[in-house]
């Protein structure tokens, strides 16, 4: 288990923590994309995949959470824009695969 950020005393410890965190993020993204597969399976119409009000709500919530944690709101917003658009593209591909 890597050290927490405030406990790191060397760049090796920082890098170990970053690498471990990246692995955890990928695990979480795998779960998130699993929900996209579920959505593709559940949604009856392809045009229901893109939901702009939901997209905005998800990005706004991430930005608000980032701000509350004193993280860069704009940077998190950009990341979530990319994440949500990637999720939509993935869900569309899954929908097409399942309904071919």
Which key features would you list for this structure?
100 residues, mainly alpha, Chorismate Mutase Domain, subunit A, 75% helix
Short overview:
The chain has 100 residues and is mostly helical.
CATH topology: the name is Chorismate Mutase Domain, subunit A
Query: What series of H and E elements makes up the topology?
Result: HHH
Rg value: 17 Å
Question: Architecture, according to CATH?
Answer: Up-down Bundle
Helix/strand structural class: mainly alpha
Task: Summarize the main sheet.
Answer: none
The total beta strand count reads 0
* Count of folded domains: 1
Q: Work out the helix count.
A: 3
Q: Give the overall average pLDDT.
A: 98
List the uncertain runs.
none
Q: What's the CATH H-level superfamily name?
A: Chorismate mutase
Proportion of residues in β-strands? under 5%
Protein name: chorismate mutase
EC number: 5.4.99.5
Keywords: Isomerase
Organism: Allopontixanthobacter confluentis
């Amino acid at each position: 288990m890597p050290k927490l950020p405030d406990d790191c005393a060397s760049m090796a410890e920082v890098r170990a923590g970053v690498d471990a965190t990246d692995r955890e993020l990928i695990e979480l993204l795998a779960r998130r994309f699993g929900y996209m597969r579920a959505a593709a399976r559940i949604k009856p119409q392809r045009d229901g995949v893109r939901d702009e009000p939901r997209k905005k709500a998800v990005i706004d919530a991430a930005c608000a959470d980032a701000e509350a944690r004193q993280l860069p709101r704009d940077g998190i917003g950009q990341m979530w824009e990319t994440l949500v658009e990637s999720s939509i593209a993935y869900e569309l591909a899954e929908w097409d695969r399942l309904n071919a």
